[in-house]
Amino acid sequence: LESVWPALEGFRTVKDVLLYFADNLEQFTYGGASIILLQHDDGVSLFYEARRVTLKGRPLQDSLVQVIELCMVSVCYELRHMLGAQWEPRYVQFRHSPPTDTSPLKAILGSSLYFNQDANSIFLDNKDYHYILKKNNDGKDIPDRTSSVEIYPASVVPFPLRVTRTILKLINLDECHLVRVAEELSTRPRTL
Fold it and tell me: 107 and 75 in contact (C-beta within 8 Å)?
């Protein structure tokens, strides 16, 4: 993930950074990962999933727990750079069981950790999500760059990963069924 953050310099808000990050993470990571942002009334959830990498048909790792925890810690670390050293997410969810000692995770992610959940996610309050990162020399806000950011086209993201992202998004909206997934991907159910 270290190669992702320098590309995010110059964005106006945390929202701009996370949108770009979610849309382009696959371009920066080997083996692939998926980030989905889901807006709620009081904030946003950043969902993260990793894919098992194989080499000659064999998985390179026995478990994705370390990969997932590392990504969540890296994201929180970078958000702390943007939002201040004392910042913590409102809560963090993990799909896996809790480790024997959760103190290292709590030291970085905060005390609101939940394990055995249906998703891996970090929740940010609206004030953190819309936090303005930079101002011009005259103190005025930098214009929103979201519309001018070059986002990789969906065709660059492998189709299986697009399906995975869509399923995760729709599960969390309680709308996950074949026809709805096909609609989101602009394809026919039979094609899926």
Answer: no
* Residue 144 exposure: Cα atoms within 13 Å on the Cβ side: 9
Confidence at 152, pLDDT banded by 50, 70, 90: very low
Q: Given CA atoms 168, 98, 72, 128 in this order, what sign does their dihedral have?
A: positive
- Here the contacts of 66-74 (C-beta below 8 Å, separation 24 or greater) are 67/33, 68/94, 68/95, 68/96, 68/120, 69/94, 69/105, 70/1, 71/1, 71/33, 72/48, 72/109, 72/120, 72/122, 73/105, 73/108, 73/109, 74/1
- Would the pTM count as exceeding 0.70? no
> Rounded CA gap, 149 and 49, in Å?
24
CB 44 within 8 A of CB 56: no
* Residue 100, number of CB atoms within 10 A of its CB: 5
Average pLDDT, the chain: 78
Residue pointed to by tokens 């371009």: 27
